[in-house]
Write a structure and sequence with these properties.
Structural class of chain A: alpha/beta
Helix content of chain A: 40-55%
Mean pLDDT of chain A: 97
Oligomer: homodimer
Number of helices of chain A: 15
Radius of gyration of chain A: 20 Å
Strand content of chain A: 5-15%
CATH superfamily of the largest domain in chain A: Dehydroquinate synthase-like - alpha domain
CATH architecture of the largest domain in chain A: Up-down Bundle
Strand order of the largest sheet of chain A: 2-9-6-5-3-4
CATH topology of the largest domain in chain A: Dehydroquinate synthase-like, alpha domain
Chain lengths: ~400, ~400
């Protein structure tokens, strides 16, 4: 096991009516004037916005609003948000929505006290150690940004999708009310499920030896997703399935499952090109990329993939030929993703075979070659992984 | 799933040489004058004390010492510690040791700013919301107190062993260096393993339905313990096994595995009489009580015990008679505990059959009848559970 640090000081309110605590929590964590940052406006239809505003009003906390944080959130809105916060003396940002609203809020929070261009953090990867405090009100189980120190933004000049991270970005509090996710469509729900599974897999496929505790926690989250996802796809109003998935989404990404081990993140890196350039949902992109990445790197550690197959998917171990078991695990993941309506190929996303060289080239404009991880990936490897997704 | 709150803002430094950060962390969390609180003095033989003191000195932080926090820590030392802290203007307590030193430090931390008798908290169970900040340097994987808001103290007047809890008791930071646990004896190690397993089981046996995510996390921690414990018992110096067990011990008890579900804690309640009156190790007492409690409550929910048997112990499900599977799981736990050298009967602890009525009577002097949990337990039930441990 590797040495590590783990610090996850987010206060979680989970369950029905948990929005009631928002005003009190904003005050507890030092907010006196709030920016509510949200997405396309669905929160104004499903009642979430009203509950948030009622709690702030009851606590006597003034607030402003900034909407339009869209999927694959863009730099332009971040710049507007930073300007607004500075002008209005905002000292707390409340993100209401999914990973897009939260990641956009985090970027604004980092930008306000920073003298330079907020994009510096995303371009260079330097840790963000100063930001306005933020809280979140989660409306989709997916990104895990409600409990993570991470943020991913797409820069409109060149459509580079890059991540930044830092202790200051961990939300002070997060409100998780599974009821708020019951109005999501089947497709949105499935995209979230895929993202959660990917967050675990990016940690699971590691070169670090002797990491039984985090292996087992990863497997536990994955088995939960396998068990609960069909329930919620069959009945989008299933509160308990929504609740299990919502908490699994947090556990999958606050790093309790990832400490002490090298992590991968190359399915994410390779996917980001797809969602940035074709503006598809991140989860849909991951559904295409992740099994292809697995097929490509399988021989790097057949036993780890066999473990994935046996422990997560319940496959029988083929002791005379573990590779068959390893391949079966990947196939089972592929079948699972198809069963919840997720795409399988680049074509399903609107990409074409001839786009592949440009996709790989664009990736390495923003990132250094090779991509480090479970296996180092050079441009030729990334192209091959895209080809496996045709 | 039940609604819940989860807030675990402890900063963990895990790994070799992690003591180096102590001085800096004390400063970060506001300490300017430290009380180092420890147990019987083993930390002065195994190098831990020297590393702690070196880090405080390097950071220029003055400190005093209070030793002798023994297993099943007593109220007398807590009163002395409170007096010392007040007299000397101590503003941070650093517990160096296992659960006993940490729980004793928590009680002192709670008592310093409190006008009344610190025991009020333990007697009444009222939440502790004000305390001096504490940090921990863990030397045995067991109690999970390094990441929990809980403390258990034995009052010398009457030998009542009671717990208190509160957000203010969560350590600000905890230093987990698995090397520091490599000097423990096989018996101490096994007692710690038993305590960790019990912390998960107290959460696992629940009446709350649809809690797949926490079920799976509980199972993951238990499977880790089953996998790693024989390694460490075979080689007490096995760093990686020690590391897995040490992190599992934290995960088992910071409540990430217990949120959203009713919990039990009656094996602990019933055990506390044994460790308070016979002064045996808490883990040894649990090894006797826990399987007996399981046998007694088995019929309350046979399927849950069958799930425990199949998912945790890998038993084959007997579909025509699940009770056989359920019983097999309890037997497997019993065999596992014996395999690591833990006692099986009250006699092994020095108790006699004729002590049982007095044990049960003493329990209900400090606690209300019935004990609530997976099954409500009246005095006759507690006596029956002790009898099953003969």
């Amino acid at each position: 096991m590797n040495d590590f640090r783990f610090y996850a000081p987010t206060y979680f309110c989970f369950g029905r009516e948990s929005e009631k605590d928002i005003g009190e929590l904003v005050r507890r964590f030092g907010g006196t004037k709030v920016l509510i940052h949200y997405g396309g406006g669905s929160i104004k239809q499903n009642g979430v916005y009203d509950r948030v505003v009622a709690s702030l009003r009851e606590a006597g906390i003034p607030f402003m609003e900034l909407g339009n944080a869209l999927p694959n959130p863009r730099s332009g809105l971040v710049y507007s948000g930073i300007e607004l916060c500075r002008k209005e003396g905002i000292d707390f940002i409340l993100a209401v929505g999914g990973g897009s609203a939260i990641d956009s809020a985090k970027a604004i929070a980092a930008g306000v006290p920073y003298d330079g261009d907020f994009w510096d953090y995303y371009k260079t990867g330097k840790p963000i150690d100063s930001a306005l405090p933020i809280g979140t009100v989660l409306t989709i189980a997916a990104a895990g940004s409600e409990g993570s120190p991470d943020s991913v933004i797409t820069h409109e000049s060149g459509m580079y999708k890059c991540g930044a991270s830092g202790e200051a970005l961990r939300p002070k509090f997060s409100i998780l009310n599974p009821e708020s996710t019951c109005t999501l469509s089947a497709y949105q729900t499935a995209c979230g499920i895929t993202d959660i599974i990917a967050h675990v897999c990016e940690r699971y496929f590691t070169n670090t030896k002797n990491v039984e505790i985090t292996d087992r926690l990863c497997e536990g989250v994955l088995k939960t997703m396998i068990e609960e996802s069909p329930k919620v796809m069959a009945n989008l109003q299933d509160y308990d399935a929504r609740a299990n998935i919502m908490w699994a989404g947090m556990v999958a990404h606050n790093n309790i499952c990832g400490v002490g081990r090298d992590q991968d993140w190359n399915s994410h890196n390779i996917e980001h090109e797809l969602s940035a350039l074709y503006d598809v949902a991140h989860g849909a992109g991951l559904s295409v990329v992740m099994p292809s990445w697995m097929k490509y790197v399988l021989h790097h550690d057949i036993n780890r993939f066999a473990q994935f197959a046996v422990r997560v998917w319940g496959c029988d171990m083929n002791f005379s030929n573990p590779e068959i078991t390893a391949e079966e695990g990947i196939l089972r993941l592929r079948q699972f993703l198809s069963s919840i309506g997720m795409p399988a190929t680049l074509f399903d996303l609107g990409a074409k075979e001839e786009d592949i060289p440009a996709l790989a080239a664009h990736l390495f404009e923003a990132k250094q070659e090779p991509l480090h991880g479970f296996m180092d990936l050079y441009r030729k490897d990334v192209e091959a992984i895209y080809r496996l997704a045709l």
